[in-house]
Amino acid sequence: MADNQLHASEDETELLSFRVGTQEYCVEIMLVREIRGWTRATPLPHSPPHVKGVINLRGIVLPVIDLSARLGMDPIEGVDRNVIVVVSVGEITAGLLVDAVSDILTVSEKDMQPAPEIAAGRSGRYIRALIVTDEKLIRVLDLKTILPGENQDAA
Amino acid sequence: MTTDPMAEIRTSFFAECDELLESLQDALNLMDEGEHDSETINVVFRAVHSIKGGAGAFGLDALVSFAHQYETVMDEVRSGRLVPDASAIKLFFRAADMLQDIVRTTRDEQHPPPGIEDMLALLKALLHEDAQELDEPVAFTPLGLSLEFDLGAPAIDVAPAEIDDDFGWTITFTPNAGLYASGNEALLILRSLSNLGHCVIRCLVPEDLPPPDESNAETPLLSWRIILEEDVPESDIRQVFDFVNDVCQLQISPRKVIDDLAPTRPERISPTAEAALPPVGSTSAKKPAGDDACPISSAASKVSLVPHPRPARPVDTNAHEPATMVRVDMEKIDRLVNLIGELVINQAMLAQSVETAGMSQQSDIMAGLESFMTLTRDIKESVMTIRAQPVKSLFQRMARIVREASASVEKEVRLKSVGEYTEVDKTVIERLADPLTQMIRNAVDHGLERPDVRRAASKPPEGQITLSASHRAGRVLIEIEDDGAGIDRPKVRDIAIQKRLIAPDASLTDAEIDQLLFLPGFSTATEVSALSGRGVGMDVVKAAITSLGGRITTTSVPGQGTKFSISLPLTLAVLDGMVVQAAGQTLVVPLSAIIETAKLEEQNIHRLSASGMMMRFRQELVPLFDLGQKLGFRDMRDIAAAGIVLLTVQEDGRRAALIVDAIMEQRQVVIKGLGQTCGHIPGVAAATILGDGQIALILDPGDLVWGGASSPHFDTKAG
Amino acid sequence: MSLNILAVDDSRTMRDMLRISLTGAGMLVTTADDGVHALEVLEALHPDAIISDVNMPRLDGFGFIEAVRRIDRLRATPILMLTTESAPELKARARNAGATGWIVKPFDPQKLLSSLQMVTG
């Protein structure tokens, strides 16, 4: 296993995993711009509940999405130990508010299983794949559906 | 940034094309106004010519061939063989438009625009028949030197290789006076010839050689016979003489052994000086009068570039062009603007911490901070002026819109531009293009009458649209005025009633009726015209202007015309705002939208229904809203407890009062775009970063009160 | 080849092309926007060769070359004319004005260099 990590083959991906509520999620590390501590977001009027607001990221107005609320769970209140994971997909950059960052995983494509139909419930459409390690189940997020943008749905 | 010099020149070429197209338009405008002096025509010619030249360098064939035809026609005009009438000048304008399109599509590597062939045919039709023939397809391949072949040269029938002792060439070269007068040098030609192969060169000196002196310094006295012992194509030899074949006598023939012995013109020579080149001897057949100025010896003198004023362009009658220019990548300027924005924010943060630290107002730190703030403001203003551009390019685009629009509705329209050199922020210019286009189209389509109607009203058949720009009270004023029929107010009123925009018995002033034009979905054309189209009305124009922080107003006199006035902030990046608090949030309201602030007093509140309220403000009733509630930050509450109201005003004069919890300060804020991620938020124009690093939203009170989600808006890309 | 060249063209693109082609070959290039400007530059510059466009504002290529030939120290300076056409009458005019040779636009940098070589030695 250690050998594998040293010689990461082409189909291996590095993922950043984090905790939202009691569940583990992850995103490709290549999409993560930075991780920063919680700062109070300025709320946007008439925005859906998962849009926490905007924060100042070194002069850029960065929208922050409450991942918990986005996935249909209770909103994260926003306390000091919470973390904002700044991600970029295409033109869109946004912060994901999560409870805590857990780990960096190296996973090969074959370890990723397609999300089962059962998961295609309320939050299923945001899950791209599942990873089962030792004792944990980690969900790989599909950022394109999570981030607001042109194909934004009425949440 | 690319490091490929050709790519950079290509970029620079297209930038130059824009300038050339601009001067082309200017010159055509002058021609259109009856200016037919040679310099004006020359400017047109040169602009097209330069575009062609540059395009050729990059092998941009579509551009070259169109420019070539255009140039051919302009050359005819220049030479006086073609005197353009009004319709020809119209065609020149359209050809300029087409040229612009081709430049654009070429630059963007898109397909060439349609209609090129038609335009080429129209241009060609202007030419006389013989000129047309002259113009038949000119090969314009990226070939280097022109190779001229003397068709009179004797044909060579004998293949030299077939005879063993018959290879190479015999060349007799006798310079004329013109050879030296044109800066050519026989010696250098001989040297070039020797580069082709080993040469035996004989200098044929006449017996009666006069002593050299000033009078005959450039009179050629010598001739040469060269045996080139190399089997090279004759064209290679001719190329050596390419520059001089009109100023010398030249004979080139395949070498025969006998040539080596028998001089062709024995009567002219006696002694024979024979030399093999190189090296080149120091004796030259020519001695320039100022003989120390021999070009070879002067090669060592290196003179550095002397600064010089840039010559004014002939067409720029306004002489507004600055003396020296530096072309800078817009990205660099934008980065500078962003940095200045950061500086302004940082300075505000610093000021706040100094205040929090309890420094006395009289302390040195406060004094230093004060001058720091002054400097920051000065830097900011200087940088903003860098972004400023004359509105000329925008106005020229509108001239084109007028031409196209008037042609499609068969109206005669002249566009007059005033104040083209008024400078406005680049982003404002870019974002004005769409609304201005729409307004110009409206003016052509609806504002101006048909020629017969105009004649009947004893107006000139040709309508006029005046587009003007000026600076007024720290803002930019752009006016679009037509001399048409004016707003047909009874008709506007009828339509508004029909569309249930107003009650049938509503009593409206003229100004109020004019305002109806800006209501969403309003269109005065009884039938939808192809030109103005459906759905894109003045409401969209207004939304676009508003999103630029601008205001739009109308004045109209029946039978005399209509004027739309757009007032815009000089720059988009900074805004004077009032920082307020509502429902625990800090918000910024543009100062330009606030008329007054006042204390809210219970006796002035008129409750209409559960949610509707009005407030009496100096004999006037204005709608009253709680800002926090309107933004969805808090539920209904007893507003009597609240304290302060902002009286806001719209461009159209509509007023509304907004209740805020507290007014914090008035200050300049740097506008930050919310970006596409957030989409359009009703009532929010943009965001800014305050002294504490927190983001505050900048409100658009008009959108907040009257807009709503259904309000059409242009995509805002501020920041 | 280290020559001192004056390139005269009203087109910035052309000037850039000339500058890049020539400086790449180790030449020192000074540019001017038109004939009048070039004559101003020539007051302080003694180039080994001049390359000039034909169509220019204020003073065209022909007028410019005639003026150069009237300056004693520049009487023998090679001048190459940049033309877009190889029409014979254009060449005749150029020659009458005193042009040493011509280069047809768009030019091939190698040919430009060899032409310069030929007229400057």
TrEMBL record, chain A:
It holds the Pfam family CheW. Residues 12-152 form the CheW-like domain. Gene3D superfamilies: CheA-289, Domain 4, SH3 Domains. GO terms for cellular component: cytosol. InterPro entries: CheW, CheW-like_dom_sf, CheW-lke_dom. GO terms for biological process: chemotaxis; signal transduction. PANTHER family: CHEMOTAXIS PROTEIN CHEW, CHEMOTAXIS SENSOR HISTIDINE KINASE-RELATED. This is Purine-binding chemotaxis protein CheW. The lineage of its organism: Bacteria, Pseudomonadati, Pseudomonadota, Alphaproteobacteria, Rhodobacterales.
Automatic annotation (TrEMBL), chain B:
Residues 369-572 form the Histidine kinase domain. It catalyses: ATP + protein L-histidine = ADP + protein N-phospho-L-histidine. GO terms for cellular component: cytoplasm. It comes from the Bacteria. The modification Phosphohistidine is found at H49. Residues 270-292 are annotated as: Disordered. Keywords: ATP-binding, Chemotaxis, Kinase, Nucleotide-binding, Phosphoprotein, Transferase, Two-component regulatory system. GO terms for molecular function: ATP binding; phosphorelay sensor kinase activity. Residues 574-710 form the CheW-like domain. InterPro entries: Bact_Chemotaxis_CheA, CheA-like_dim, CheA-like_homodim_sf, CheW-like_dom_sf, CheW-lke_dom, HATPase_C_sf, HATPase_dom, His_kinase_dom. GO terms for biological process: chemotaxis. It holds the Pfam family HATPase_c. Its EC number is 2.7.13.3. Involved in the transmission of sensory signals from the chemoreceptors to the flagellar motors. CheA is autophosphorylated; it can transfer its phosphate group to either CheB or CheY. This is Chemotaxis protein CheA. It comes from Paracoccus aurantiacus. The lineage of its organism: Bacteria, Pseudomonadati, Pseudomonadota, Alphaproteobacteria, Rhodobacterales.
Automatic annotation (TrEMBL), chain C:
It comes from the Bacteria. Signal peptide: none annotated. InterPro entries: Bact_response_regulator (IPR050595), CheY-like_superfamily (IPR011006), Sig_transdc_resp-reg_receiver (IPR001789). Residues 4-120 form the Response regulatory domain. SMART domains: REC (SM00448). Gene3D superfamilies: 3.40.50.2300. One of its GO terms (biological process) is phosphorelay signal transduction system. The keyword Endoplasmic reticulum does not apply. Keywords: Phosphoprotein. The modification 4-aspartylphosphate is found at D53. This is Response regulator. It comes from Paracoccus aurantiacus.
